[in-house]
Design a protein that fits this description.
By secondary structure, the protein is an alpha/beta fold. 17% of the residues lie in helices and 51% in strands. The protein is built from 1 helix and 10 strands. Strands 1, 2, 3, 4, 5, 6, 7, 8, 9 and 10 form a 10-stranded parallel sheet that branches. The longest helix has 25 residues.
């Protein structure tokens, strides 16, 4: 690489070059995530647990728990899975079990509060793009798909 600086500030050029390289690296990283089966788990707090089993040819799953004593137990088997699970608060629980689904699973589950529980089993055309939002304290949602 060759360059010159009119006013002698080479640091400006180096910073600009580093920003360009960083942008290219982020694009390459994003392309990698899009073209591969990815399960991202982020846990912030104490005593959080996540047991995920994802069986799919094409999957992008995000699981995020913020708080304490949160538990997530997910089992999925589908042709394509694009799921999101987010819990904020303490003592929350998500159970989402699906034996097998043809097509795309794209459900989103969000819980914000304390002592919240969501049980979801099975899958069908209604649950394909379902979004479950629960907030507050001490609530439970049951979803049975046949």
């Amino acid at each position: 690489m060759f360059s010159q600086s009119v006013d002698g500030r080479i640091n400006d050029f180096v910073l600009s070059l580093n920003e360009t390289n960083s942008r290219n690296l982020n694009q390459n990283t994003n392309q990698y995530f899009i073209s591969h089966n990815i399960v991202k788990i982020a846990q912030i707090g104490n005593y959080n647990q996540a047991n995920l089993t994802i069986i799919s040819n094409n999957a992008y799953v995000t699981a995020k728990q913020t708080g304490n004593n949160n538990y997530m137990n997910v089992y999925k088997k589908a042709d394509e899975i694009n799921q999101s699970y987010i819990q904020s608060g303490s003592n929350n629980y998500i159970s989402d079990v699906s034996s097998y689904s043809r097509g795309v699973e794209a459900m989103k589950v969000n819980q914000d509060g304390n002592n919240l529980t969501i049980f979801s089993t099975g899958s069908n055309s209604i649950s394909k793009d379902m979004i479950i939002n629960q907030s507050g304290n001490s609530g439970t949602i049951y979803v049975f798909n046949r």
